[in-house]
Queue: 2 jobs
Job 1
Amino acid sequence: MSIQLDELRKSFDGKEVLRGFTLTVEDGETSAIVGPSGCGKSVLLKHLVGLLRPDGGTVFVDGQSVPELRKKELVRLRRRIGYVFQFAALFDSMTISANIAMGLRRLPGWDRKRIASRVEECLALVDLNGLGERYPAQLSGGQRKRAGLARAIAASPKYLLYDEPTTGLDPVTTSVIDRLILRMRDELGVTALVVTHDMTSAFRVADRITLLHEGRARFTGAPAEVRTADDDVLRGFVDGDPALYYGVQGGQDDGA
Amino acid sequence: MVLFPVTGHLSRPFAASGRSTLAALGSVGRAWALFAGSLRAIGELRVWGPMLLPQMARVGVASVPIALFIATFTGIVMSLQASYTLTGAIPHYFVGTLVGKTMIMELGPALTGLTLAGRVGANISAELGTMRVTEQVDALETLAYNPLAYLVVPRVLAGLVMFPFVVLLAIAMGIASGWLTALELLDMSSAEFIKGLRLFFAPWDVWFAVIKSVSFGAVVTGVGCFCGLQTEQGAEGVGKSATRTVVISSMLILCLDAFWAATLL
């Protein structure tokens, strides 16, 4: 098993965001976690790269218990994980090429020539050829997302974590990003975890979809199973029906 | 049933002060963790080495104009006020003594330090704060960088190295402007001014200024990094962090100023 979360718990200022979340992602699989904004999806992803420590439960990535890793082991694990941030999180004082090269500079045996060549490859992979010398502020939202993806894949990671990859994008650009996610799976063979509240995107890219509801995995299944499931909360979320979704929940959650 | 309803009102100030104390202790703990982590991060020379020169330019070289501007006018005012104060019984060449001694030992380091708390400290805090709230600091970590080695160490080292240079330039400019003022507006000769300047001069005074400015450099850059990395809640948080940096740095500079005077003189 590539990624395994078991009974994951996390609170912030007394508010319990994750209340025993359990999930398994198999090798080569693209799994999507869906849920409304503020339900703890990004919090969950940050546990996988050791940016947050759980209050309880276990987090295993590549057979290693992330919270128990020592600093050097964590650095080695992070080199096997690419993280695509919600708003790209590009270093705004650097060009796109320099952003993509950042992770490569930390790898042993990578000289400037090899780094430059890999940067060009990554730019081509996300269809940003010729834009390497631009700064993040000079790119559109969709281009920034693609640049963030290029940076995440530069070191050829085994795992890719996508945090809301299509938020704020128009439908056409969303489709472009979705196709890129599928391309990463097919061409690079990565194991991917996508957190999103965009069901169209989730249906398009995921082999399995999990609904995160009230800090737990409410439903997990293939896209076809999600479409036909009779769970009211899931139906409410998939169909965008607040009465169904909040009716069962008994009031709108203020999120985390 | 509430037996003593008044207790709730009475306990509020205590509860508030308790929360403030806990928050302050938490900040001290986080500051200590940042300090200890940064000391360990000094070993990662390959990460912070390439960042040092650009930071030295930003922290030091770019601060020279504002430091010189302030020192120029401080020197002019010092010279005029010394002349006004010393009119009568005290020989006029003491204007040089006063300008030199106060610029070297107090006004040069302290005014420059306070100015750079605004220019450098707020800049660092806003930059790192923006990086924090836009997840750029998290991105650094996911790319296997230690943010302390990449962001904090080069800035603090640049402050330690460059503050003394900026302060020494400011001192020189303050004395020069005081000297020119004495020549042009006070009818003093260069010989008189220099005689006063050399009268109580001791090389230790310069070392005293250097020691103070090194500590001010550490405080301004260190507090800027700390407040920046603690930033929360978007643009408003960035603004608050920058303000907090200037306030805390200024207070610490004045405390250190008194501390060094009490311990080294």
Job 2
Amino acid sequence: MSIANAPATGPGDAPAADGPGTPVLPDAPWRTTWRRLWSDRGSRTALIAAALLILIALTAPLLSRLGGWSPTAFDAGAIDPYLGGLPHGALGGISAEHWLGVEPVTGRDLFARVVHGAQVSLLIAFAATAIVVVTGTAAGIAAGYFGGRVDTVLSRLMDLTMSFPSLIFMIAMMSVAQDVNRVVLMTVVIGVFGWPGIARVVRAEALSLRHREFVEAARACGSGPWRILTRQVLPNISGPVIAYTTLLIPGMISTEAALSFLGVGVRPPTPSWGQMIAEAVAYYETDPMYFIVPSVFLFVAVLAFTVLGDALRDILDPQGGRP
Amino acid sequence: MIAYLIRRCLGVAGVLLAICAVTFTIFYLLPADPAAAACGKTCSPERLAEVRHFMGLDQPVWRQFGDYLVGIFAGRELGSGPHAIQCGFPCLGYSYENALPVWDLLMDRLPVSVSLAFGAACLWLVLGLGAGVTAALRKGGLLDRTLMVGAVATASLPVYFTAVMLLYGLVRLTGLLPYPAYVALTDDPFAWAANLLLPWVALALLYAAMYARQSRSSMIETMEQPYIRTARAKGLPARTVVVKHGLRSAMTPVLTLFGMDLGALLAGAVITESIFGIPGVGRLFYDALQRSDQPVVLGVTLLAAFFIVAANVVIDLLYAVVDPRVRS
């Protein structure tokens, strides 16, 4: 199956880039991956979009200063008090002053808010993904490599976690906890329910690696389990893990947005995309731009990471290991 | 087969017990004191103690949990003395909000959520599998690429965005559909369907997109198997090869996914229900959270877990019937 899928990814793996003078050494794996990602129009666009979003999230304070507004500053001059607080001007008050318009009633700058929202949304999504990947990989390797009782206990725990109604549970936990750092809490709550998926994939990989010749050889040479795990097993499962990690991110972004949409995520005035959309729902007819701006950001983020994840999976893990 | 069934059911009981314990620990150890909330602002310490006793909150946690568990299977008496309330067989406690039995509240809302879930499930299975299998059979073609681009874009749209857009387009702008207001199936089947159509479509679009992606990759993988080549080589008509040999085994992973998704939705699609204002279990849950009505929150969580586990068992049993190797 791996052979059948490999040529489908197109001309990216052709060694055409090598000039006559270059030595014909095989490329480092990450270079091959990079070249194949870049050669496909869809994944290249996704890569650029994802990189842009990350850049926006990283430089949010700088960008909003560039725009001239802080995400929490009110601008009474930008809204029309006689029209129920709707923004002055067409398209939700888009102007040279407010690049993406303003919020109705408060007149807060949408550009500053959506940019800061990117920071919160992506921070939570990435941190939760990190938790999921680290715990999931550790549990999967332990279960698959050691087998026996460790495997039984961990597999049961995976089944149990997967039987939890995760969204309902997350909502409940988020609304029960009152006075803690919402961003940290949200990251942990989202992360707790995600690990069994990747653990199963890793477990299956580790199980098949356990009796391969090179692992046996390392064992025969007297390597301890820690050395074998870090030097033999881990590098060999890194492909599927990277692909799966990228595919986890869009789900995490959506979950964060859903929780914030329901009002149990980050608390105002800290902006997040889901929360902004929730506030904008009431205005979708009178001020559609207010609703569309955060929705477009959320949509692009989820789409970009999904396309990127798909492409990485085709390159790094062509034969499956799908959840 | 019988032994397998018994083993499976014991496993289910264990999982449900564990979920119950975890849920109970989290929600009953929280800082907010429901007795103080129920008693109001002008509450004397004696009265508060009375309320706490009545709610069973003066007992140690393990004792409360034990009572709760016993209550589910045998019913129990809440409080003591002349004011005691008898809570019958599936006793999940009483709502702090309106003093109604949680079980009755759940059963009241369940038909709504089940209507929503099943309608949407039918729709997304037809759309998703149709698109996925069509795309797989024309792998690499224009139709395949169009469908898959559409699927990945649709799957990236949050359900609340789709819902608002549908509301705007089909209700406000054109008036093709009524604004969703739940009508019971037994009252008026036509109005039931017309009112639920919008939520069905909103929910189904998201899942259809995911199922299209899943079933496409599964179908492509199956169609590359040697036994498909054999079936073709012995001269079976293309239709038989695709439907009887291909589809049958390609649907196995999709079926697992379907069990999980449907199970999770049966106990309420929280977001969809709160957007369309449908009075289902998800809405009940959301409202209960706003008022920290813990017995209701706990009840919905348990119901949801029950549906997920039950759906898993049903799917496993289906496998066991189809594939004898599973039973061992």
